[in-house]
TrEMBL record:
Keywords: DNA-binding, Transcription, Transcription regulation. It comes from Microbacterium marinum. This is AcrR family transcriptional regulator. The keyword DNA-binding applies. Pfam families: TetR_N. InterPro entries: Homeodomain-like_sf (IPR009057), HTH-type_TetR-like_transc_reg (IPR050109), HTH_TetR (IPR001647). GO terms for molecular function: DNA-binding transcription factor activity; transcription cis-regulatory region binding. Residues 27-87 form the HTH tetR-type domain. It comes from the Bacteria. Residues 50-69 bind DNA.
Amino acid sequence: MTEETAADETGLAALALRRVPTQSRSREKVARAIEAAEDLVRREGVEAISLPRVAAEAGVSVGALYQYLPDRDAITAAIVARYHGRLEGLLDAVIEQMRASPSGPDAVGRVLRAVADIYQDEELARSLGTVRAGSAEARDARRAHKARMAEKVGALLGLVGLLDGLAADQASAVARVAFTSADAVLHEAFAAPEAERELLLAELERALRASFRR
């Protein structure tokens, strides 16, 4: 196994790191730091992130992390990249489940519940949903993530027959609008108190049902 392959297997190569660590000891420290940063975000929010704080939480030196995660923006970008990867992996799993059993009543409800469950299960969604991408690279990464998610939502909609009869470009546009709308509302909903959350989810479902009533 090459050092590059080892880095890929840890998942670090896919993150927005200043440098990808190649030595196993460095990879372990960076992975531990990102885990500590995620825990910190869950407990105290994104505002608590800083290089000294994350290093202390992870039990590593600031110097050991600086070449990979030099500042708050870099740490946040790495957390967001890993969070995006998890969302995409979870949605891939839903697609496989739906592919095994594509038929059934209430197609809109099935897709919405499947996507909502992913956001609800991801605790970081409540904290990271409002993070604004700072650098051009971070903005590009977020746009690429949203494009991949929209494509996956399109696959779900296609599996349950909601894109039947549409040309490819129109089907792609429908999937993009459906995902963009749901993504914004779901992040808001799972950051809100429970009563408000239920109202937002109900309104999202009503809007999606109306849009697919053809």
